[in-house]
Amino acid sequence: MNTKEVLESEERINQIVDTIIEIHDRKTYNREFTSILAVSSIPVLNTYYDLFKKKNHDLKIATIYSFEANPDLTEDEIHPRTLLDNQINDYNEMFGTSYSTDTFQGYYQDISKKSKDKKIDILLVVNMFLTGFDNKYLNTLYVDKNLEYHGLLQAYSRTNRLCNDKKAHGNIVVFRNLKEKTDEAIKIFSNENALETVIMKPYKEYVKIFNSEVEKLNKIVPTIEKLDDSKDVETEKEFIEVFRNILRTLNKLTPFDEFKFKDLNISQQSFEDYRSKYLDIYERVENPLTKESILNDIDFEMDLLRRDDINVSYILELLKGLDPTKPTFTKDKDFITQTMNKDKELRSKIDLIDEFISTTMVDCNVDTEEKLEQFMNQKRENAIKELVTTENLKEELIREILKEYEFSGKIKEKNVDETFNKKLKLKERIKKRDLLVQKIKDLIELFTW
């Protein structure tokens, strides 16, 4: 049997493309991270690219590879440079750029930057970007080529740059049998026992770990009501530590293709209830007016709580689907607010969205996106004016601080002090400054949509 012919057949590659489209969002946490697809040759890469173009999906695909100036081509073959130019034209159309193979270095730099900015979902390569490319948002490597020894580890290592609590590991999705080569490379370049620490445990092992933590959770707080009634900070501390372990393990479980919530010894509804309580405690502890407690020293690892399926686009789509004339309107509206309550960033905006629905969406013929933007801009303007009035501040200076914080994420204490209209004593000024800094951060977070 001609193995090369089988591996490079369009039928096989078509099946792989379908698989990647199906699993990509799960592997990358709904595109919070990005990926590389490494293939065996330029002709194979072009087959992949053409098949991706024919499929129905919204993934942003880009390619990059080096080519020979004078390759041996048959009469029917197209020069790789021409094919790459066609692919770069697609890239230009997607991103509004104007590169070509004549400006290859500029294209290389731009594709590297856009990958790091998570603007490319899948980068198709042959050899480029498999060594030395450092992108903390790259968490998945799809492999359809033979790799071994140092080259294998170099390629796999593209996914291991830690980014946040959610990226505890990288995903290597291999469409060839590289198990022996992988084990051999790890043993040669690490040690005989390294397999246990380099390769993740099987799915069932993580299910067992998860369910063990659920058992601990049930002993501490058998029901969410017990946590509501509890005034015991020690109980809350135990809950946070155990539920954080549950979140860590779930984070490892969800990228597995076989993951199903029914394998876990907790219902999805109960999990969401505990998750909401975890968020409540976090917000209480983070409040600057809250008294010091033993909970202040706990790292809640909030990145683990990010809901990638619940984002602004998702909420906007739900809002667009609201129809005040339907009998399900109230139920649909409640679903939106309940959904937002599950997300750390969105739950602070629930009152705003509730007001937007009540005051603006009185009929189904409004341009939801445009009206929402107008509503948010007006509310933001009102909030700034209220802040200036209640805190007796210089409006022009406070607007400059808000603008700078939005751009850089930084607030200079000296600039804050200069916004005060009234001259304050040192102790009073420091206290007012700290409160004002928090109010500025809260305002920007509330209206960042």
Short description:
With 449 residues, this protein is mostly helical. Helix content is 55%, strand content 5%.
How would you describe the overall organization of this protein?
The chain is mainly alpha-helical and 449 residues long. The chain folds into 4 domains: 196 residues, Rossmann fold (3-Layer(aba) Sandwich); 102 residues, Methane Monooxygenase Hydroxylase, Chain G, domain 1; 56 residues, no CATH class; 83 residues, no CATH class. It is 55% helix and 5% strand. A 5-stranded parallel β-sheet has the order 2-3-1-4-5, sandwiched between helices. Helix 6 links the parallel strand 4 and strand 5. The longest helix has 24 residues. The N and C termini lie far apart (57 Å).
